[in-house]
Amino acid sequence: MAVTEFNWNPALTGAQEWDVDGNWDQPGFPNGSAHVANLSVPLAASLAAASGNSEITLAGLMIGGTSAPVSTSVGEFFRFRNDDVTFNNGNALIVAGGATARASAH
């Protein structure tokens, strides 16, 4: 099973919903053990991507704006599971980086 990376649309900042198709560069939204969500994109302002009452499963999550210090928050119900042993040795991946002033998952 190959991992698919979904990149967040950097034009979308502020309070957003995770499960909106147009928020990502691929059809649908990341929710599977072979999906990596990349929110480490050039955000112009802080981002809060809410998952609502849905549980989201991810093989990996990358957060932190790359163009300016911003805060990135995601949550509420995330489960990390990676079923692809060729991606990160089968371990889930969580990366907070970029030019981020504060990155959090809650």
Write the layout of secondary structure elements.
Blueprint: E1 4-7, E2 14-17, E3 35-38, E4 47-50, E5 56-58, E6 60-63, E7 71-75, E8 78-80, E9 93-96, E10 102-105
Parallel strand pairs: 1-3, 2-4, 3-6, 4-7, 5-8, 6-9, 7-10
DSSP strand count: 10
Our estimate of the beta-strand percent is 35-45%
Which stretches of 5+ consecutive residues score pLDDT under 50? 100-104
Helix content estimate: under 10%
Shape: globular
Overall pLDDT confidence? 87
- Output the helix-strand order: EEEEEEEEEE
Number of H/I helices = 0
Number of domains: 1
Q: Indicate the radius of gyration in whole angstroms.
A: 13 Å
Span between termini: 28 Å
Spatial order of the strands forming the largest sheet: 1-3-6-9
Largest sheet: 4 strands, parallel
Structural class by sheet pairing and helices: mainly beta
Primary descriptors:
106 residues, mainly beta, four-stranded parallel β-sheet, 10 strands, 0% helix, disordered C terminus
Give a written overview of the molecule.
The protein has 106 residues and is an all-beta fold. The chain has one domain. 0% of the residues lie in helices and 37% in strands. The protein has strands at 4-7, 14-17, 35-38, 47-50, 56-58, 60-63, 71-75, 78-80, 93-96, 102-105. The chain starts with a strand and ends with a strand. The model is unreliable at 100-104 (pLDDT under 50).
